[in-house]
Amino acid sequence: MTPSAEQWAAAVAAVRSAGPDDEILLICHVNPDGDALGSMLGVALGLRRLGHTRLRATFPGEFTVPGPYADLPGLDLLVPEPDAWRDPRLVLIFDVASESRLGALADRLGAPRSVVLDHHASNTGFGGVRLVDPHAAATSVVAEQLLERLGVPLDAEIAECFYVALATDTGSFKFDMTTVAVHELAARLIATGIRPGEISRRIFDSRPFGAMKLTGEVLGRAVLDPAAAGGRGMVWTYATLDDLERHGQPPYVLDTLIDPVRSVAEADVSIVVKQTAEGEWSVSLRSKGAVDVSGVAVAQGGGGHRLAAGFTGYGEAGDVVATVRRLLDEHLN
Ligand code: AMP
Ligand code: MN
Ligand code: MN
Fold this sequence. Notes:
With about 325 residues, the chain is an alpha/beta fold. It has eleven helices and eleven strands.
């Protein structure tokens, strides 16, 4: 499961096969989060330190960088999807569990060399060289190891990118994946001089007033279903495009809405259903341990981790939740 010595060697060889003026494209998943952007931009900066001049980083779909990540180092290398290199010499993919999360950029997997860096157990197995470690707390754990093998020393800019990624995917060093190795990596990153307090305030503890009001409204309509998930309980809520519009907020403000929902003590499973278009919903699933929600997500064409997963749902929000409720009993641990 963890990348083998051969895979690491192949990844290093793939990067070294690109000359300083060859086009290199870095891609992360649609609707990027802190790990997707942080691991990608950290590696992009590392490649710049190695002397590469034609670097572009991108993600599919609407070109919105969530506010919390708008100050990440390396953002000058980020371009919207239409400006991505068409025929890059080398493609590096970050935090992407399945090709569907690459949208129309999936065709770049046809590049002469491709390297996939990821940590989803549900990763579907695409790409040339695969650095997929389901035991890694974040894709940035894999990314940092790649830079080390390439001989790129950590500096404060690279470290800030990787720290944001690590803090995001460990829920501020709270989740089970927060191992000794995670804290050792955090220590190496902080040793470059970055300021964890400042970074955490920016990415976790700062949001527009309208986002807070919207959150209040959406949490206010949450429903507790104690009988679901074999009696372990389920709590769910939903947010519509109309909710966003009324509060003047972009969709990404709903990315962290699952956190207060999953804190409900009476429910093992939590669900947030976020409208993305007419009859289309982005579904976030979390479990405290009783259910493998990635199994539910994969059954619906999505993916993720055992305790945190997601998929795209269709129809009415209530129907999406009813489908999840039915699948939960099949995926009890
Ligand atoms: P989220 O609820 O959006 O924070 O996502 C939780 C986890 O599920 C992350 O690891 C995502 O990569 C994964 N995930 C979310 N939506 C999808 C999807 N449509 N397809 C595959 N994986 C997904
Ligand atoms: Mn991600
Ligand atoms: Mn991740």
